[in-house]
Amino acid sequence: MPDYEKNFLDKLRGTDRQAVIAVAGLGYVGLPLALSFAEAGYQVVGLDVDGEKVKKISRRESYIGHISDTRLKEAALKFSATTDFRLANEADAVIICVPTPLSRHQEPDLSYVRGTMDSLLPHLKEGQLLSLESTTYPGTTAEILRPPLEERGFVIGRTFFLVYSPEREDPANPNFQTQTIPKVLGGCTPACSRVGLALYREVVEIMVPVSSPEAAELTKLLENIYRAVNIGLVNELKTVADKMGLDIHEVINAAATKPFGFTPFYPGPGIGGHCIPIDPFYLTWKAREYGVHTRFIELAGEVNEAMPRYVTGKLARALNDRGMPLKGAKVLLLGMAYKKNVEDMRESPSLEVLTLLEEAGCECQYSDPHVPRMPRLRRGSWNYASVKLTPESLASFDAVVLLTDHKAFDHDLIFQHSKLLIDTRGAFPVGPTVVKAWGAGCRTESCGQ
Asked: Going by C-beta distance under 8 Å and a sequence separation of 6 or more, which residues neighbour residue 107?
């Protein structure tokens, strides 16, 4: 039998970079990873079912804000994209980076992982490495990926290598890129781990091996559950501070001066993105299999999910104080993406705020430099283009609500020309037109995160 591990390492480490890398799923995780391998000198093929993404890559046009067209052009000789999954047969390593959303019943939806595996499986061959990066519950690699590979006759750890290595991308964060974020990896066997670590070390500075795919899967969930629970905690404390007439941001910033034992988290209009609102429920679902009720995680989820309604309540009270009902009010929402400086709207609390205001009878528009046009909402009929911020446009609204604090927003312009400004991010100073949820004794109220 050939020494598949040695053959893989020889191709990977050779000065001519003979190894070919396939990345299945070219979104916020897959595209930067594919480019990292191409920039390291490897031939990379991107696989995606979205023909539009493939066409844009072929034209060297980026569809992700923080990835430039120039970066795609510079990788042109090493990176190509296709919808033809048969090309996985030409790769030495195949990396799956597809979404893992929740179903409408708050249960894991692994249809993208299963569908990708079904597309890849007929074209996989002996000696390859398969890595799953999608966030999921402990046991997915062993239960979903390993059985069909073994049914094809592959011997995991000898003729085929299987690992789980969760993504840790933070889009638009200038301080961390794929190469500089330590990467966790768990292999199904020691040989799988060795091969997987060797692959990723070519593009990642620090690798963090763990004992199994299950340990790596739970590591990823822990990271995001930690954030979800702590954000839920400060969101709840925000409502307490509101009743007490205290500035929650002042309290958090004071607590953050403690040099040990405290990490600051900040409240806001809710949580969004493809990880924090979703990943905790993967563990909640899996824990039921073991008879465990994850009450702490579920409570944090309830608190965070209630924040959009809290924001709309603050707006309604602020308008009422000025003798104006919520129904019929003209409201401008600033920022529809789930976080600053990106265009990603997945699970954005801004969408829920918008839906609630629509249902209450508000006349809503939005401004977001990263989202030039909004798609139709799941429960509404709203479909508008982003409003350009000018003194006249701001003054034409009864209220302006800051939901996502993009760097591109002109804070002075917004502060000076808004009749009523609801600040959900703690971004504006105290002023007669600024409303913050920091307590009735303040001239500002905040819903801030």
From this structure: 281, 285
What confidence tens digit (pLDDT) does each residue in 167-191 have?
998 887 888 888 999 999 999 999 9
Residues of the chain with pLDDT under 70: 375-383, 430-433, 435-449
Indicate yes or no: pTM above 0.90. no
Paired residues of 435 in beta bridges: 422
* Cα dihedral sign, 148-151-153-155: positive
Superfamily of domain 306-435: NAD(P)-binding Rossmann-like Domain (3.40.50.720)
Q: Given 97, 188, 192, 275, which residue is catalytic?
A: 275
> How wide is the angle at C-alpha 168 spanned by C-alphas 163 and 170, nearest 5°?
155
Residue 442 a catalytic site member? no
Quick: pLDDT tens for 311-368: 999 999 999 999 999 999 999 999 999 989 998 888 899 999 999 999 999 999 999 9
Span(s) in the chain for CATH 3.40.50.720 = 4-212, 306-435
Task: Look over the chain and give the mean of its residue pLDDT values, rounded to a whole number.
Answer: 91
User: What gap in Å lies between CA 346 and CA 339, rounded to an integer?
Assistant: 10
- The CATH architecture of the domain made up of 4-212 is 3-Layer(aba) Sandwich (3.40)
Question: Measured between alpha carbons, how far is 340 from 104 in angstroms, rounded to an integer?
Answer: 27
